[in-house]
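Reading group handout, session on sequence-to-structure problems. Before we discuss, look at one worked example. The prompt was deliberately terse, the way you'd type it at a terminal:

> structure F-box/FBD/LRR-repeat protein

The input record follows.
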Amino acid sequence: MKRCKTCGPSLRNEDRISELPEALLLQILSLLPTKDVTATSVLSKRWKSLKKIVPNLEFIYNERNNLESESDLERFSNNVSRHLLSYQAPVLQSFHLNVSSYDEGLIDIGVLLGIAFGLHVRKLILEVYFDVDSFTFPRNLFNCGTLETLEFRAFILLDVPSQVCLKSLKTLHLHDVEYQDAKSVRNLLSGCVNLENLVVDRNGHDCVKTFTITVPSLKRLTILDDHYHSKYVINAPSLKYLKIQGASCFRSCLIENVSELVEANIEILYAIYENILESLTSVKRLSLSISPLEVTFPTGSIFYKLVYLELCACRADWWNLLTLMLDTSPNLEFLKLIGPCHKYIKPVPWGQWNQPKNVPECLLHHLEIFIWKDYEWQRENEKEVANYILRNASCLKKATFSKRGLNSKERLDMVEDLESVVKASSTCQLVFK
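And the output record:
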């Protein structure tokens, strides 16, 4: 009898995880690949039924890395179809389909997407890697009332000859996709009437010469572009966060109607020919890595709201851009300079820094934090800039300098050099890293 009493509780405790609330079990299963979720269905009837209502589904087929054989693609397609057709929850929260194959003829991605859309899917991540042709996203699926997040990756062609209706879409990611033409871009974006977050990641393979982004509801925009001589037109009156990053030469980037902009990060390795700074005067936080030689700035434009500035100190005559920004940012509180660190930037001849004619207002009344990462302390121009800020920043509380690869002698020389500067702020703390 004692033995039975001992065994009873033990047997009951073997499957304690099944006693967890259904909501918690579904949350756990949502973190697993769908093939692993399917494997759990053999545990019990309860697990089998849970498989049919897991909110997030992910299916991955990768023939290119020899993880699958060509003959498995049709079987994979059938498994995805069966799983979707047996789905019983009223809404499919997320559907992630990743197919990498040499033969696209063995799978009908459009049919699988159609089934998922019939389940009122809210988030779709589609990655397609075919050898010959790109997958053309079905036009009829651009009219979905439930889709809130849409991510396209790789060899997907967007052919949108007429306007679409994605009224619930809040987030759209376009990574390395192809566009039939510029009209397809305009029609797609104009149909996303509530879009708030847009990521455009281009690699130069599409035929769109001028990429136009006109989205009144857009709040966050990220552009990553290695396309040589790209052109952009941005009109987003609700935009608050902007990031533009390019390893090539932007032919133009016209930014209009962004008076609500709060934060901007602009990193373009070579020329940009527009008055880009004029478009950013409403920002509170600004990060710039652009060529001062190609920047024009209209007289009278002031960054009244700017309190945080991060500037790349690795371009020819970068200090001229610094002078311009200090002169036009009267309320600046935080300044961060980042020294030479970009592997793509070619060595260029350096000029001579001319300090401002008058001490900028931000140095006299507002600047509190100064950081210089990778400070080139042995260069005279860099030393002049650092000394000028320390000598004139009356409210400075903390100045931090860092430089990698220094030996103890060099580090000591750098510290002594900076500590010898007569500082405008008696409470300024010097920090060396």
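Points for discussion. First: The first helix runs from residue 2 to 13. Second: Confidence is low (pLDDT under 50) at residues 1-8, 10-14, 343-348.
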